[in-house]
């Protein structure tokens, strides 16, 4: 039934996509992807895409760009420089970013948006999807590390390096740490067979003299000893909190984290101060109610490019109710209001599966003053299906004057997951207006994306809005689809199609009536060396249907892209050639060309460098001019407290080189004691056209604040001691780190500790194993569940003893059978057992993957035996343990001599166990007549 439903949905989508359309959206500015909306890459690759930005306002606007990337992804082309657009001007914004080598395989959403520096309500954005493909590579896994350690102590980290390739490789480890504590590696160089792994131990010495908590960042890289293109290096970053010996004083108040920022910004002639007060945190100790606020003023956006508008916003957040007041972006749905900035109020109620919300806002800077009222009602039936209705009144000249409005808009939307790895979003909208006589119109939107068999990726989008529809999307028709699929082994193919139309009635009073079609097909191949080559064919047609037409042209190009990943370098090169035909001027050219080069060097966590260069004819213009662009960016984490970034960009356009611009942007950050911080930003730009020069700067000093909200009256106390229990007398164990409810306690020289202010109720007490010494364990299983009572002290005694070990091997006996012809014969007394050819190898394979279980009644430990049948359980507590060997996968020709072993361990004792696998001996009767033949 589910399959039929999915097939029916796909058939409906194909009918919806049977005609072409395009989209115009946004509040004064439109942003839409001009390349395919689905990109594929290997980890470590550079992704380049582009967005067409159109300014539909009546004035020149300076836009601030924002690229939202997943954590750890890195920009190659900086968005720190403002983008200037004249009225009705269009421009291509090229975006390039690096996908880290450590990125897991999967689909990621990338968002690009713009907002005017003058009026935040002039904003729009678009998204693309990036699919990170799975690859075979080295893996560096963290098996054991402490969360917290005591200053001056030595702690240990356990790592496992896994060779996911198909050949042997020699590796060496490189480590960098901040703060720079001494680190010993054992071993520092290893050799790994294909599919094997090895454990590496790190021992770290900490600084006893630190006075406040410090977080140590350790970056480990396992890389081939020789230059091996078939193996990428593996990286892992570990964070450990180092705690000074002085125990922190109890905090008797619940506090709200906040910050005061003092800003001084300006340019060569104009300068101004600005103050910003912000905070985000819980209003109660349970964390059920939160607050998010921002107060900024005065307005200094005209004083400097880095000066911001004055804003005031407060949000109260809880599980079932959210309240928002002030200046922010209010949103409803893609067809009604995707984002609308203004000053207003909003309430969002979510009692269970039902959702209800409404907002009211007024624009701050646009004229005339208008208002909007929006509301929604939703219901989540289950994880696969939800339904939502939206309502919007826009363009009211007076607050809540429902008779004086521009449009009423209704929409119904749903989210649906028909099958696994598939997402389908639908929305239908309807608008009513009495602005110029009664007019009604409709819009709809379809968004389908997913995977098939983890090999085929697809993305389909369609948005249609009638010429009289007055929602967020207006007078537009848009369609795009991308399909990526395997052809043969590492050879992949991709198909992309998009159509675009606006001004559907070809109304000359509305400006251009764009008709656009794009076809693209590509094939790509990934080499084992890390090189990826792709070849793209693209046909773009654009026509203005309003006469006299502004443009009517067609371009056909072929692009060769080479992406290379070499150790810490990621390189991407594009060579694009083709032809261009201007059908208005009757000009035809076969010399259309574009060249680009992107490079990134990630030296380490502490410094990285990026470079790009582009030259060639501009795209999406009726008369393509030659453009040049070059950019360099770098980041240095100079020391623990200082970081510096520099970005330089040079652009040149037009045949006569009349438009040339240089931009330099820098950011310097310095961390002061007690979490205070200084940030300096500066930008210098120079334009050849008119010899314009500009300089702007920003200096910000931020001060963290902890605002006391309520006194912790209902608190309890937990105290106790940690002692060595092996001797006749209890010997105190000092400097042991314990944590409970986020608080930390350290035992003194008498082995005693205290938590003076804990919340009443049950809590888990955790003990840092590294703080009690190597080869030592507590006598109880941690974490311990403790009952904290109101205004009463709970006491606990923790014993520490030497740790134990149980190791052993699963072994087949007898071990030296006599060979006979193509099989093997084993003797046991007067009986004979025949083992057929190949059976012994299968048995050994099973013994190398046998499940071994160890329990003491409180905890269960499990392991799979290694290739030789060996196993080892480390750091065990003394006491009685039961070792059980599972024989479910053992061949019926064999049996375990003993499945369970009763083992009693004394402190520090190490025991070995031999698990014997014996053949089931079947007696063979010798008949006087006849023969036994080996078939």
Topology, element by element:
Layout: H1 2-16, E1 29-33, E2 38-41, E3 46-55, E4 61-68, E5 74-75, E6 83-85, E7 90-98, E8 106-116, E9 123-132, E10 138-144, E11 148-150, E12 154-163, E13 169-178, E14 183-186, E15 189-192, E16 197-205, E17 214-224, E18 234-243, E19 253-267, E20 271-282, E21 289-297, E22 311-318, E23 321-330, E24 340-349, E25 354-362, E26 371-382, E27 385-396, E28 407-416, E29 422-433, E30 439-452, E31 456-465, E32 476-488, E33 491-502, E34 514-526, E35 532-544, E36 552-566, E37 569-582, E38 587-604, E39 607-617, E40 626-636, E41 642-653, E42 659-671, E43 677-687, E44 692-711, E45 716-724, E46 731-732, E47 737-740, E48 743-746, E49 752-758, E50 761-767, E51 776-778, E52 784-788, E53 793-802, E54 804-812, E55 818-820, E56 823-828, E57 831-835, H2 839-847, E58 851-855, E59 860-864, E60 870-876, E61 879-885, E62 894-896, E63 900-905, E64 910-919
Parallel strand pairs: 2-9, 11-18, 45-53, 54-64
Antiparallel strand pairs: 1-3, 3-7, 4-6, 4-8, 5-7, 8-9, 10-12, 12-16, 13-15, 13-17, 14-16, 17-18, 19-20, 19-44, 20-21, 21-22, 22-23, 23-24, 24-25, 25-26, 26-27, 27-28, 28-29, 29-30, 30-31, 31-32, 32-33, 33-34, 34-35, 35-36, 36-37, 37-38, 38-39, 39-40, 40-41, 41-42, 42-43, 43-44, 45-46, 45-49, ...
């Amino acid at each position: 039934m589910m399959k039929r439903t999915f097939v029916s949905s796909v058939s409906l989508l194909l009918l919806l996509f049977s005609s072409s359309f395009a989209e115009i959206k946004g509040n004064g500015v439109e942003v839409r992807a001009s390349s395919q909306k689905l990109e594929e890459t290997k980890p470590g690759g550079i992704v380049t895409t582009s967005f067409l930005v159109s300014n539909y306002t009546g004035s020149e606007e300076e836009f601030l760009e924002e690229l939202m990337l997943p954590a750890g992804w890195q920009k190659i082309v900086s968005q720190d420089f403002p983008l200037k657009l004249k009225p009705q001007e269009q421009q291509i914004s090229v975006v390039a970013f690096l996908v880290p080598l450590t990125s897991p395989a999967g689909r990621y959403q990338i968002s690009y948006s713009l907002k005017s520096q003058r009026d935040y309500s002039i904003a729009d954005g678009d998204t693309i999807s990036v699919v990170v493909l799975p690859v075979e590579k080295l893996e560096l896994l963290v098996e054991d590390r402490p969360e917290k350690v005591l200053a001056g102590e030595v702690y240990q980290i356990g790592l496992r390096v896994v060779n996911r390739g198909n050949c042997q490789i020699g590796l060496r480890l490189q480590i960098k740490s901040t703060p720079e504590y001494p680190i010993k590696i054992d071993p520092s160089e290893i050799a790994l067979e294909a599919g094997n792994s090895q454990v590496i131990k790190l021992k770290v010495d900490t600084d006893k003299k630190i006075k406040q908590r410090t977080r140590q960042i350790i970056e480990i890289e396992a890389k081939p000893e020789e230059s091996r293109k078939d193996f990428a290096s593996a990286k892992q970053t570990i964070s450990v909190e180092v705690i000074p010996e002085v125990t922190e004083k109890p905090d008797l108040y619940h506090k709200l984290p906040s910050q005061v920022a003092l800003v001084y910004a300006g340019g060569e002639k104009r300068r101004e101060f600005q103050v910003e007060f912000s905070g985000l945190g819980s209003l109660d100790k349970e964390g059920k109610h939160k607050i998010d606020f921002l107060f900024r003023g005065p307005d200094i956006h005209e004083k400097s490019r880095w000066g911001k508008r004055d804003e005031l916003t407060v949000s109260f957040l809880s599980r079932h109710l959210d309240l928002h007041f002030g200046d922010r972006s209010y949103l409803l749905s893609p067809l009604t209001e995707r984002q609308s900035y203004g000053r207003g109020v909003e309430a969002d109620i979510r009692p269970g599966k039902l959702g209800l919300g409404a907002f009211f806002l007024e624009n701050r800077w646009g004229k005339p003053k208008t208002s909007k009222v929006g509301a929604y009602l939703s219901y989540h039936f289950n994880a696969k299906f939800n339904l939502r209705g939206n309502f919007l009144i826009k363009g009211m000249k007076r607050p809540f004057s429902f008779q004086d409005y521009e449009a009423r808009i209704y929409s119904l939307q749903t989210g649906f997951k028909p099958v696994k790895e598939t997402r389908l979003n639908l929305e239908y909208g309807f608008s009513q207006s009495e602005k110029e006589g009664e007019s009604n119109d409709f819009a709809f939107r379809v968004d389908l994306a997913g995977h098939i068999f983890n090999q085929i990726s697809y993305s389909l989008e369609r948005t249609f809005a009638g010429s009289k529809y007055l929602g967020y999307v207006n007078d537009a028709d848009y369609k795009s689809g991308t399909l990526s699929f395997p052809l043969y082994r590492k050879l992949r193919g991709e198909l992309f199609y998009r159509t675009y139309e606006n001004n559907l009635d070809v109304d000359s009073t509305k400006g251009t009536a764009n008709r656009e079609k794009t076809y693209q097909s590509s094939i790509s191949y990934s080499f084992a060396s890390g090189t990826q080559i792709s070849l793209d064919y693209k046909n773009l047609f654009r026509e203005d249907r309003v006469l006299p037409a502004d443009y009517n042209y067609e371009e056909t190009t072929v692009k060769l892209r080479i992406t290379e990943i070499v150790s810490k370098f990621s390189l991407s090169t594009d060579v694009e050639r083709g032809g261009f035909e201007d059908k208005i001027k009757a000009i035809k050219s076969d010399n259309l060309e574009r060249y680009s080069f992107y490079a990134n060097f990630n030296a380490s966590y502490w410094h990285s460098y990026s470079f790009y260069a582009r030259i060639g004819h501009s795209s999406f213009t009726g008369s393509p001019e030659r453009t040049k662009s070059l950019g360099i960016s770098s980041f240095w984490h100079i020391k623990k407290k200082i970081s510096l970034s520099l970005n330089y960009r040079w652009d040149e356009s037009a045949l006569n080189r009349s438009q040339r611009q240089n931009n330099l942007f820098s950011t310097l950050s310095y961390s002061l004691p007690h979490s205070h911080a200084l940030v300096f930003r500066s930008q210098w730009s120079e334009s050849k056209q008119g010899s314009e020069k500009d300089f702007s700067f920003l200096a910000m000093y931020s001060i963290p604040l902890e605002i006391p909200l309520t006194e912790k009256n209902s608190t309890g106390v937990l105290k106790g001691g940690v002692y060595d229990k092996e001797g006749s007398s209890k010997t105190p164990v000092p400097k042991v780190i314990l944590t409970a409810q986020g608080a930390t306690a350290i035992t003194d020289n008498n082995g005693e500790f205290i938590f003076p202010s804990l919340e009443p109720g049950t809590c888990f007490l955790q003990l840092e194993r590294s703080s009690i010494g190597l080869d030592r364990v507590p006598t109880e299983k941690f974490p311990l569940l403790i009952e904290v009572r109101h205004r009463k002290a709970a006491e606990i005694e923790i014993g520490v003893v030497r740790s134990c070990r149980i190791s052993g091997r699963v072994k087949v006996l007898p071990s030296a059978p006599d060979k006979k012809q193509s099989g093997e014969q084993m003797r046991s007394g007067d009986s004979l057992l025949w083992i057929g050819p190949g059976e012994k190898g299968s048995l050994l394979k099973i013994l190398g993957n046998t499940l071994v279980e160890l329990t003491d009644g409180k905890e269960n430990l499990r392991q799979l035996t290694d290739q030789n049948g060996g196993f080892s359980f480390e750091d065990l507590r003394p006491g009685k343990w039961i070792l059980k060997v599972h024989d479910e996968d053992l061949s019926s020709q064999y049996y375990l001599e003993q499945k369970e072993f009763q083992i009693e361990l004394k402190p520090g004792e190490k025991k070995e166990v031999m698990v014997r696998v014996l053949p089931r001996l079947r007696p063979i009767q010798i008949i006087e007549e006849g023969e036994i033949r080996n078939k």
